[in-house]
Design goal:
Blueprint: H1 2-23, H2 27-40, H3 47-58, H4 68-90, H5 94-108, H6 123-130, H7 133-141, H8 150-160, H9 166-179, H10 181-187, H11 194-206, H12 219-226, H13 231-234, H14 244-261, H15 264-277, H16 279-287
Helix pairs in contact: 1-2, 2-3, 3-4, 4-5, 5-6, 6-7, 7-8, 8-9, 9-10, 12-14, 14-15, 15-16
Length: 289
């Protein structure tokens, strides 16, 4: 029994030696420790994941700028092999360990232009995963007409959410909801801003039609009725295609201004326009008055 305990303790010691070397990003020490663990216990269940991480460290730093095909290959390996291996070895600390590797990969992709048909092969998603919000924002702003395209707008929301409040993110969130409702619906509850998750859950419960494929396009209009203080912030939203959901949101924004200013005649006319545009939103609006 003593021998079994000793052997078990040696397994743990050898495994910890690999983990500590990996934690320091020391490829040579990690490979030496890994060889020792493999020699002592070839069936150790941690070996495959540790080998993947050693291989990734062996390729540091990445050699200059990557062309798109090579970049796609490296990204695929990062997603399908390195990321799960890091979660296996480091658990909750995997995200922090991976962050500098994602940022390193982002810099190797910095020369690649944004391709909406191949959106993942770009520096910005890597900077986002690495937590370098400033670099992500700078690269988004370098994309021509970025604010007219749903993918860069979604990236900008992700990059700014950790450092801005909900009111500053709100115009971008509204633009994304109008341009790409399904993408906005998936993104907003995941932001580190609890207000968005709260609003999305309430919208899905209370708005008739929220389950439709494009139903989330009505989210900005609904939020304005519930959170009138956001009306002024929405003025910073870029004009979109002026589809009905956007027109209703801007109409509600005008209604809220007219209410504050006490312009009764114009307010009555604006309420009539809202009723004609969307009976359900009009009913919600009246209920809150």
């Amino acid at each position: 029994m003593q021998l079994d305990l000793f052997e078990h303790g040696r397994d743990v010691m050898l495994r910890n030696a690999v983990v500590e070397a990996l934690r320091r990003y020391d490829a040579a020490a990690a490979e030496t420790a890994l060889a020792g663990l493999a020699s002592h216990h070839a069936a150790d269940p941690w070996l495959p994941a540790m080998a993947v991480l050693c291989e990734r460290l062996r390729r540091r730093p990445l050699a200059g700028a990557l062309a798109r095909p090579a970049a796609a290959t490296v990204l695929k390996a990062a997603e399908e092999a390195v990321d799960p291996a890091a979660r296996r070895v480091f658990g909750d600390d995997a995200k922090a360990w991976l962050a500098p590797l994602w940022c390193e990969l982002a810099r190797a992709l910095a020369n690649l232009a944004f391709d909406p048909c191949d959106e993942d092969v770009h520096a910005v998603p890597c900077f986002l995963r690495g937590g370098d919000w400033r670099a992500a924002i700078a690269h988004i702003e370098s994309i021509p007409s970025w604010r007219r395209q749903p993918v860069p707008v979604a990236w900008m929301i992700e990059a700014r959410a950790p450092v801005d409040d909900a009111a500053r993110i709100w115009p971008l969130a509204a633009e994304l909801a109008w341009m790409a409702p399904a993408r906005a619906k998936a993104l907003l509850p995941r932001l580190p801003l609890v207000q968005f998750g709260h609003w999305v859950r309430r919208f899905e419960r209370e708005f008739d039609g929220s389950e439709a494929s494009d139903g989330f396009a009505w989210f900005p209009a609904w939020v304005l009725i519930e959170e009138g203080r956001l009306a002024e912030a929405l003025r910073g939203a870029e004009p979109g295609s002026h589809a009905p959901p956007e027109r209703c949101a801007r109409l509600i924004m005008d209604l809220l201004v007219l209410e504050r200013q006490g312009r009764h005649t114009e307010l009555v006319a604006a309420r009539r326009r809202l009723r004609h545009a969307h009976e359900g939103l009009f009913a919600l609006y009246l209920r809150s008055r």
